[in-house]
Amino acid sequence: MDSVDAGLPLKPAYPVAAPDASHLQNDQV
């Protein structure tokens, strides 16, 4: 969770965190 939070403010991490979060949510479901 920390990694995603830190990626949000980061411009280069923003696009990378978007797909990452989707994959994580899918796994949870």
Description:
- This protein is mostly helical.
- It is 76% helix and 0% strand.
- It has two helices and no strands.
- It is elongated and about 25 Å long.
Class inferred from helices and paired strands: mainly alpha
DSSP helical segment count: 2
Overall 3D form: elongated
Q: Tally of extended strands?
A: 0
Strand content: under 5%
Order of helices and strands: HH
The helix content, as a percent range, equals over 70%
Instruction: Round the Cα radius of gyration to an integer and report it.
Output: 9 Å
| Overall pLDDT confidence | 57
Task: Give the distance, in angstroms, between the N- and C-terminal Cα atoms.
Answer: 17 Å
Low-confidence stretches: none
Main sheet properties: none
Topology, please?
Layout: H1 2-7, H2 13-28
Tags for this model:
about 30 residues, mainly alpha, elongated
Summary, kept brief:
The chain is built from two helices and no strands.
